[in-house]
Amino acid sequence: MMKVNKLAVFLIGGLFAITLNVTAWAQNSGALEEIVVTAQKRSESLQEVPISISVFSEDDIERFNISNTIDLVKNIPGMTGVTNVGLPQAAAYFIRGIGQDESVATLDPAVGTFVDGVFVSRQIANNSRLYDIESVEVLKGPQGTLYGRNTTGGAVRIITKKPTEQTEGFIDIAYGEYNTIEMSGKINFALTDKVFTKITTFYIDQGDGFLYNVTLKKDQWKRDANGARAQILYVPNDRTEFLFTAEYSSDDTGGAVGANKLSACCGHDLFVVESGLANTWASTQLMALSMKATIEFDNFQMELIAADRDLEHSFNNDYSDQPTPAYSIPNLSDHIQKSVELNFTGSLDGANYSGIQWAAGASYYDDDNAVVFGDALFLFGGAVAGTFMRDLTNVTEARAVYADISVDLGGGWGLTAGGRYTKDERKVNVEQFLDLNGVPWEARDRSNFMDRSGWLSTAAIGQPFDNATLEALGTKTTIDTNEFTSRVILDFQYTDDIMFYASIADSFKGGGWASRVTAAADFKALKPEFVDNFEMGVKSEWNDGKIRVNLTYFSANYTDLQITAIDQATGAFVYSNKADAKVDGIEGEFLYAIRDDLTLFANIATLEGRYTDLKPGAEGIAEKDLKRTPDFSYRYGILYDLAVSNGELSLTAVLNREDDYYSNQNNTPAGFRPAVGKLDLNVTYRPNDGNWRVIGGCSNCSDERNANSTLDFGTLGFVTQFQDMPRLIRVSYRYDF
What we know:
Structural class: mainly beta
Number of strands: 45
Low-confidence stretches: 1-28
Largest sheet: 22 strands, antiparallel, barrel
Strand content: over 45%
CATH architecture: Beta Barrel
CATH superfamily: TonB-dependent receptor, beta-barrel domain
Radius of gyration: 26 Å
Distance between the termini: 55 Å
Helix content: under 10%
Mean pLDDT: 91
CATH topology: Maltoporin, Chain A
């Protein structure tokens, strides 16, 4: 704690020292571009928003080799994250040490994902393909006032491009390692002088897998994905617009299994596995519809967003990596989400007042989940066998109202205050069965893996597991939460280019149930998770906007932290609220435009996470480090645009590094992730007189191979480690018309 506070004082105090020397720097350089964000429900310069935000434009997404939202992680120190074990479509984001690595539908993420203002409720499909994107904003720290529940860690905002009146489009074709073919395209045109439309598509076909399976003698973990987004923009007048969006995506991945660390096979190569589960896959299909209506009045704007998202998800994965699978999980689910949000934003200027900006709104959210999933257990060579299947539905309804106001106090001082009231209602219905079909899981495929003909309620064998059983045990099957969250920010505009701010904010994550268990006594209701956050920072630009230095210090206190772990004595999953925690840290962003064609940048983050209270019954949870909290992480690089004969080369080099951390809450040796640094490169050639470009990119260029997640079932005979992405080299050609 002391070392973090001292560093915060040193860094923030160092800004004053910079003023003594900075005027001698870069007298002939070009200024950095202004970045405009909508994090506070209105368009503002990033440097004027008193929130720690990382922003990526369309050009950044291309230059930094960002294909999916999980790729944001390597570009944001202090944000860790991986795809969920065996589920490449799901991203477990951790911002400032807080996240959720369990994808089951009865638990919510701690980092909210929003696409064009629509909340993405389920973690199993939040690793979105980023195509035809205007920008991505990552808001760090709790965002409960403006964005509501399930943002105790932060929020990821994806803003797609809207249709325009222009007739234009592009075709992009790429080839990459592992025999991967990618294509994307867009066509944009006007139907009338008031109606514009756009259709964008993508396609991915990976011919060779990342893994080789010595038992099945084939490669696996191949990705087959495609999708399309169609939009219509109707602009009846210069104050009104209606945006209609329909989006479809399909993502099918086979065999993304982990490697058993205890196996003598394969020289402990993470990318060589021996799972005997022949039919393994993870698949998602999404259909999403939304409508956004925006109407401008004299002093305010109204925005209405209505959305419907239907997600189908299935997988069958081996989590033991053994020739005869010891533990596999089959899953089939359907998730239907409906939401409506009404926002008002405006400003007040009059004879007796000025400089007042405000936002207010209300929202309704309904999330229906129907899930059939189980645990296929054939432990110790089959001595302990059984397949327990759970038929589960859970429904969440949430209603909220909020208001937020920013006031210019004069003399450079500003005050922002806001609050949100949320009513969150959840209910669950579950029954467990014993699968007696007799067909080995390694022989099942998608057509028969959920065949119920041989299912027997566990009540028939004296182990009832349904709602009546849960209620008799004292487990709530409904959770109602009524919470008020708020924020207060004081900012001081020291000069036109330097702003200081301090804030307090809180947020909460909804309650849920520990559903990945096989005994009714372990199916526990979890309370909501709460956070109180203090933050102070400075945003500054120097030398006519050629140098940008932004620094933030934060201290967050978490109450009833929702924890997932594995009990090392029994091998059972453990879920609890039996801990409070505190996370402190510093974030820094530095950019220096040496010339119009040359920019240097660096980002840093420190994290110090620890428990402040471990309550009795915190089984399987070590009183040690919070998982995924590296002490120090950084990213630095160079952007260089070089004039060559008949064109321009844009060169990008980025090195990112994270200190070691534990990927599991138990802090077991197998869950220790050593420090790792990775290099990304990107080269783009554009001709002077053409409308095309060629892009060559390399992610993890030195092919660092490490585990990013571990399921430590050592007492059951296996410790499964899941792989981070290997080196990926990609060349693409894009033609704009």
